[in-house]
Amino acid sequence: MIGESIALEQRAEIHKNLAWFLIESDRLASKQERIPEIANHLIKSQKILSSKEEVEIFNHYIILAGNSAKLAAAFNTAYNLFTLLKKKITEESWKDRKEQCVQIYKSFAESAYFLSKTLEAEDAVQVLLSRLQDRIEIVDVYLMQLEVMNAKNDLEGAYKVGLKALQSLDVGFPEKPGITVLIFEFLKMIYYQRGRSPERLREAKKNQDPYKIETINILTNMLNYGKHSDGKLFVFLFLKLMNITLKEGNSPVSFFGYAGFGSLLFVVTGNFKTTLRYWDLGEYIIRIFNADRIRGRYLFGKNMLLDFYRQPFSKLVLLADEAYEKCIQYGDYLWAAFSLISHSIYHLYSSDTSESYYEVLIKDAKRGEQLGYETVYIVVASSDFLIRSIGNTSKQNVIYRDREMSAEIFEREVLVPNANGTANAWYAVLRGKETYLSGEWKEGLRVFDKFANDLERSRTIFIYSEYRFYKSLHLIRSNESKRRLSWSNLFFIKRSISLFKVWSKTFPDNFQSYFYILKAEYNRYKKDFAKTDMFYESALSSLQENEGNLRKAIVHEHAGVWEFERGRKHYANYLLKVSERQYRTWGATAKANQIQAMRQHEEDVGILLRMREEALWDTILKSAEKLDFRSVLKSSQSISEIIEQDELLRKLMRTIMENAGATRGFLILPRKDGLYVETGQDIEREDILTRSLILDYATELLPIEIVYYCYRSGQRILLNNTSSKDSPHSLNSYIGAKRPKSLLCLPITKQGRILSVLYLENGLTYDVFDEHKLEILEILSSQAAISLENAKLYEDITSLNAELEKKVELRTQELMQSLEIIRKDLLYSKKIQRSILPEHPVLPGIVYSVSYQPMDEVGGDFYDLFEIRPGVYRFFVADATGHGVQAALITMAIKSEYEHLKKIQKNPSSLLGELNAVILEKFKTLYLTCVVADINVKNHTLEYSSAGHPPQILLREGKTDLFHKTGAILGLKKDFVYYTEKIKLKSGDRIYLFTDGIYEQFNATKNEFGEARFSNSIVLSSSLSPEDQISTVQKDLNLFLQGEPIQDDLTLIIIEVVFS
């Protein structure tokens, strides 16, 4: 700091010298952070800057500092800096430095607009318009006004400025286009397109006309008004954009027309693949014109109009954040604000709890302060209101900019004057959700009707889908007391169902559960109760594991209420308990309390018993919520790895209890002198069975008559309602005394021999052992049969070894000889298994490399590659359950079947379907995951289909993308329909096919290598050849394992596309 005691002239001289020193440093090595410091010294020394060179340097660095302040959204600083420069402009300045003067006035006006100094901004604009003659320069001024007015939400003003800008370019434009104008514009588009596909449009000429390029810029900035004010105008603007591009050629801003047209095409035709092609064309345009400055706009549009059909909410919030950061990087504040709004909106279902959602809102509100975009505050206030409304029993007010007001005042004094369609639609959707959950149908419909125009015009798919869902439910619920819905309301509901059907086919994860709820509610209204049952079950089955608690709670609540209405109180209690837990976990305490009051408890149950049952319910529901065939398969694999009988029985019993929702269970095994209860578990008692017990002495533990009947007949006994007098077992003494609600006795067999009997019961609710759980138990039982027999053999071998030890040397030699034979057999098996793996021929158009490492001498992984026709290569990767010899035998069987099928099946999905049928027919209990990928180097496509396999990876331009799962595990379900996904490939793309052994490896501290480390490894090594990259990934894994052996078979194939 320069001392105040120094004279003013001396201080100015010091500041000047410091400025010149920093300027010289900046010339040698430019640094952005040095600019404000230089500007500060120049301002403090401006009185002694007199030469022309000094004035030019002063203006240069103050402009740089002002632009830097604008980029940081520090509009006060920018305003002060450009005010200083503006005061220094003279008539001579306009003659000598006109371009610089225009820049200063434009930047001053922009900063003044953002600070609501409208009169100063308008005066500066008028000066510019009076000074400028070139039409492009005049349009640039209008464009600045347009963007600022959009950011300030003055949509009417922005539209009027847009019309002036078009007039300055002599572009005719109807203020309010009608149907005739739209039809004419559409016919022009057909003519200009001349049947060209999106791929052929990449080869269109480049637009060299600056007036046409500016026209596209103007029309793009007028879209915001059309979106919120006039649907026909919105469509006309997109058609106009498209027609200029088709007629004049491609330019950096052409992506607006292409992408927008693609989205409109999906709305009209439902053809999502064509929509993707137009969006890909838009991205191609940005890339070839190196238009990174507008990439943020493209990312935002894709996030709101396209990605919602392809990505889960957890990914959508990341994509919204990416769009925001890219817009901020180039000072594109309006689109940064749009991206911030989408970030806040998507987090509603991405957040696990209301607390984490609230934290996001606080963060977004702080980021919004820098942008000065009022709509951000409204979106945050509306979201905060929802959190508090469903989290508290008392009526809540809206808190907007530290001011508390009722919802009605917020609508009247904030939403209506602000007149932003997105903000209004978001508020209406959230109020609709809140009123529906609280049963206030009339209030919800009032809000929907008040903001109907904004909701119907919403181009944000998430908001629009939520609106259709909740308004449809409001209409059905509010008309329960009436005989029939009006024809208009009925049409609205049917249209909503139709839209959700299309959306759920495009991306089931985000739409399917809501589609089934709508179908169920509609059939409930029509009193078609069979279909209602079916659709509610479908809704429950369609819930995704990674779906947010709030969406899960809504689905479980609907299904629970329906079951209660049908008189199935116990199942209703179960579903409502799940819903209550999910609401409470999310933070919707008031709603959770409402559900708790709705639930039906058993009558005449004491308080202690009720508390005990609540605890038991938690245990059961915890396991029931997480049922997942992949986790069951993992459990099956963990069972297959145990060979010691006592440990196996304990592990088997624990696994079955966790997956079956039982409160008590036993395993009964035959011995020479009868049946023995070998192990058991009860969620109330840890010491239910301290030692094995003869079945005849276990009358207090289980109904022995039923167990004997099951063992002797080999038949499964299922009693989902033991109180029914129609059951032949209703008079059983154990059932009469203990009164279990549900009971299952299941023989575990292998090749017709009964190895054991599994007994399960649930003492709390009826209908526990449904088809879903029976299917899971069949899988576990199949593995249990193999493992029990292996354990029995192991026990026999152990006993035999104890006898052999007495003979010491002779028997030891015999044993060593046997082991040597086994070792040789294993080595021979290894050679056999390796011999079935394919050769690695050179395949034109691709470069690939393979790594195959079984955990033992032989393993359960298998791969194949084959040229099915010229230029089309089929890759196959499979992973059988278990390890070692058992898994290797499975791969041999699969190899035999696959070799026959791979040459006759035309596409991957039909191949998997046929292979699944063969496995079920021939092998019964054989399970494996796999993926088939067909690479066509002629038309540059990849077609793939997977069966329960981990998502494979596509690496493009340094970014990874996961392939969707397209079907269930092979050998699991009969007649399962697999489907094929198709991806357009580009030269340089890399495809990674692998088994889960590549990342399911643990080091000495039990940390997993994991998907994140694997993904990071392939991204960092992507510049290497496939062969070198495989070596690098292997080195990364070995470094992580630190000498630990691999614990699973692993296969990795890296394929690089090298189209000429």
Fold and architecture overview:
The protein is α+β, with helices and mostly antiparallel strands. Among the domains are: 175-286, no CATH class; 291-353; 373-478, no CATH class; 636-797, GAF domain (Beta-Lactamase); 843-1057, PPM-type phosphatase domain (Phosphatase 2c, domain 1, 4-Layer Sandwich). The protein contains 42 helices and 18 strands. The strands form four sheets. The protein has a six-stranded antiparallel β-sheet with strand order 5-4-3-8-7-6. It holds the Pfam family SpoIIE. It comes from Leptospira borgpetersenii str. 200701203.
Descriptive terms for the model:
globular; five-stranded antiparallel beta sheet; alpha+beta; 1060 residues; 42 helices
Give the topology.
Blueprint: H1 8-28, H2 35-44, H3 52-71, H4 75-87, H5 91-96, H6 98-114, H7 118-131, H8 135-151, H9 155-168, H10 179-193, H11 198-201, H12 210-229, H13 231-248, H14 254-269, H15 272-288, H16 295-305, H17 313-329, H18 333-350, H19 354-371, H20 374-391, E1 398-400, E2 403-405, H21 407-418, H22 421-438, H23 441-450, H24 452-457, H25 461-478, H26 487-506, H27 508-525, H28 529-542, H29 549-565, H30 569-586, H31 589-598, H32 607-625, H33 629-640, H34 645-660, E3 664-671, E4 674-682, E5 693-694, H35 704-713, E6 717-719, H36 733-738, E7 742-750, E8 753-762, H37 771-804, H38 808-835, E9 846-853, E10 861-869, E11 872-880, H39 884-901, H40 908-922, E12 928-936, E13 941-947, E14 953-956, E15 959-962, E16 981-984, E17 990-994, H41 1010-1020, H42 1026-1041, E18 1050-1057
Antiparallel strand pairs: 1-2, 3-4, 3-8, 4-5, 6-7, 7-8, 9-18, 10-11, 11-12, 12-13, 13-16, 14-15, 14-17, 17-18
Domain PPM-type phosphatase: 843-1057
Pfam families: GAF, SpoIIE
Protein name: Stage II sporulation protein E
